[in-house]
Design brief:
Strand content: 15-25%
Distance between the termini: 82 Å
CATH architecture of the largest domain: 2-Layer Sandwich
Radius of gyration: 33 Å
CATH class of the largest domain: Alpha Beta
Structural class: alpha+beta
CATH topology of the largest domain: Alpha-Beta Plaits
Number of strands: 15
Shape: elongated
CATH superfamily of the largest domain: Reverse transcriptase/Diguanylate cyclase domain
Largest sheet: 5 strands, antiparallel
C-alpha cells in the first residue's frame, strides 16, 4: 500500500507540474514558439497567435522563418535560427511579419532546450516593441527637428553647463562673434564675448540663469577681433525633473538697428530745433517716423519684411481669413546647404546670396501676399485667399526664380547651383484652430522636403 501511495503522489506531482507549465505557456505576454533544431514549429502559444495572426494548425511543421521573417530580414532570421540550433542563446531586436503582411518591431530571444545534456528543441520568444520603437523614432525626429531649428535660427544660441561652459552652439553664434566652431565648445561664454570691464556683469547674469532666473537685456559684447557688437541677450534655464541642469543664452545682433535709430533720433532733434514752420516741421517728422517704422519692420540685410512684421501681418491675415471663411496658405522656404555655401564662399558671398534670393522670392507674388525673412537662411510667405493648389503653383514659380539666379554652389549635394526647399500648409481657419498650428505644419512639410532630398516642395 505504501508503494502504491508513493506512485500516486508522483503522478499527481507530474500532473500539477504539467498544468502549471501549460498555464504559464499560454498566459505569458510574449509570443513563444517551440521549434526543433532545424527551425520547424512544434508548438506555439496564445500570444504568438495574437501577435502574428497564425493558428496552431497553420504553423506546426512549418519553418518559423518562412512564417514571420520578411524578405529584407530573412537572412538575419536564418542566422539567429542557426546560432540557436548550435546551442547558443541569442537576443536581438528586428522586424518581423504578421500573417496579413504587416510588419512589427520585436525583441527576439532564442534559447536552446536541453534535456539529459542534449539539445532537443529551441524556444523562440517574441515581444512586440513596436510602440517603443515608434516612440524612439518620434523622439529622434523631434531631436533632429530641434537641432535643425537651433542651427538655422537667426539668433546666436548657446547651451551652457552648470559652470557656464558652452556645450552646444549654432553657426550664427560663431558668425556673430567671429569664432571658428572648434574654438567655442567647452569655453566659458563670458570669457569669449565679454569685455574685461563687463565680465563681472556677464558672470552674474549667467549665474542667475543657472540658478533658475531669466533675463533679457540690451548690452555690448565683444567679437574675437576685439570689436564691439550691440546685442539683445536673453537667458533661460533648462529644467529637467524640477532641477536646473543647464541654460540657454540667445543673442540677437541689434547693431544696425541701434545705429539707425540713433541717426533717426538725431534727425528728429534737428527737425524740432530747426527754424521752420509748424507745417514743414510736421511733414519732416512724418518722414523721419516713417523711416523709423521701416527700420523696425524690415530686415537690414535683405530689405524685405522681417520676422517681427511677419508675425504681426500673419496674425491679422489669420483673423481676416477666419471672419471671411477663406483659405490662408503658408510657405516655409530654406536655402539648401547654406552653411556649406558660407564655409566655401565666405560670409560676404552668403549675404549677397540671401539678398538675391529674397528679391527673387518677392517678384512672383501678388501685392496682397507677403514674403519675409524668418531667420538665418529661412524665409516665409503668407498667401491670403489661396488654397493648397494655388500655394503649390506660387511655390513652383518661386523655386524657378531661384533656379534662374544660377548662383554657383561648390558644396551642394543637390547640384552645381543654389537651390531651396519648401514646405506648404493651407487651412480655412476654424474657431479652435490657431495660427501657430498652421505654421508648425508648414515647418514640418519643410523638414520633410529636406529629408526627402532637398530642392523640392512638400505639403502638410
Amino acid at each position: 500500500m505504501a508503494v502504491k501511495h508513493k506512485r500516486t503522489s508522483v503522478r499527481r506531482t507530474d500532473f500539477l507540474g504539467k498544468e502549471y507549465f501549460e498555464n504559464l505557456f499560454n498566459q505569458v505576454p510574449e509570443g513563444i514558439v517551440i521549434s526543433n533544431n532545424v527551425g520547424r514549429v512544434i508548438r506555439i502559444n496564445a500570444e504568438f497567435t495574437r501577435m502574428f495572426g497564425y493558428g496552431r494548425q497553420e504553423v506546426v511543421g512549418c519553418m518559423v522563418d518562412d512564417l514571420v521573417a520578411p524578405p529584407q530580414s530573412f537572412l538575419e532570421a536564418m542566422a539567429i535560427t542557426d546560432c540557436v540550433a548550435r546551442g547558443e542563446k541569442i537576443s536581438r531586436e528586428g522586424i518581423r511579419r504578421r500573417k496579413d503582411g504587416s510588419l512589427i518591431h520585436v525583441s527576439i530571444l532564442g534559447v536552446p532546450i536541453i534535456t539529459h545534456d542534449q539539445q532537443v528543441a529551441v524556444y523562440g520568444i517574441y515581444r512586440d516593441i513596436s510602440d517603443r520603437k515608434h516612440a524612439e523614432e518620434s523622439a529622434q525626429m523631434e531631436k533632429a527637428y530641434l537641432e535643425q531649428l537651433v542651427e538655422t535660427a537667426a539668433e546666436g544660441i548657446v547651451m551652457l553647463d552648470p559652470e557656464g561652459r558652452i556645450i552646444l552652439h549654432n553657426s550664427e553664434f560663431c558668425r556673430m562673434f567671429g569664432y571658428p566652431a572648434d574654438e567655442v565648445k567647452g569655453r566659458s561664454v563670458d570669457d569669449l564675448i565679454q569685455f574685461p570691464d563687463t565680465l563681472e556683469e556677464g558672470v552674474r547674469l549667467t549665474s542667475a540663469v543657472l540658478g533658475g532666473g531669466r533675463f533679457t537685456v540690451e548690452t555690448m559684447r565683444r567679437r574675437k577681433d576685439g570689436s564691439p557688437i550691440q546685442v539683445s541677450a536673453s537667458g533661460s534655464p533648462i529644467v529637467i525633473k524640477g532641477r536646473n541642469v543647464a541654460c540657454y543664452a540667445i543673442y540677437r545682433d541689434i547693431s544696425e538697428i541701434k545705429q539707425a535709430q540713433e541717426a533717426i533720433l538725431a534727425s528728429q532733434r534737428e527737425v524740432l530745433e530747426a527754424n521752420i514752420s509748424l507745417q514743414e516741421r510736421t511733414r519732416q517728422l512724418e518722414v523721419v517716423n516713417s523711416q523709423l517704422e521701416r527700420i523696425s519692420n524690415y530686415d537690414g540685410l535683405t530689405a524685405i519684411p522681417n520676422r517681427r512684421y511677419f508675425e504681426h501681418f500673419y496674425e491679422l491675415e489669420w483673423r481676416r481669413a477666419w471672419r471671411e471663411n477663406k483659405w490662408i496658405t503658408l510657405i516655409m522656404i530654406d536655402v539648401d546647404f547654406f552653411k556649406a555655401y558660407n564655409d566655401r564662399h565666405g560670409h560676404l558671398a552668403g549675404d549677397d546670396c540671401l539678398k538675391q534670393i529674397a528679391q527673387a522670392l518677392q517678384l512672383v507674388n501678388r501685392a496682397s501676399d507677403l514674403v519675409s525673412r524668418y531667420g538665418g537662411e529661412e524665409f516665409v510667405a503668407v498667401l491670403s485667399g489661396t488654397d493648397i493648389e494655388g500655394g503649390r503653383r506660387i511655390a513652383e514659380r518661386m523655386q524657378q526664380r531661384v533656379h534662374s539666379l544660377r548662383l554657383i554652389h561648390g558644396d551642394s549635394l543637390v547640384g552645381p547651383h543654389v537651390t531651396v526647399s519648401m514646405g506648404i500648409a493651407a487651412q480655412i481657419p476654424e474657431a479652435q484652430a490657431t495660427p501657430a498650428e498652421l505654421l508648425l505644419r508648414a515647418d514640418q512639410a519643410l523638414y520633410l522636403a529636406k529629408s526627402n532630398g532637398r530642392d523640392r516642395i512638400e505639403e502638410a
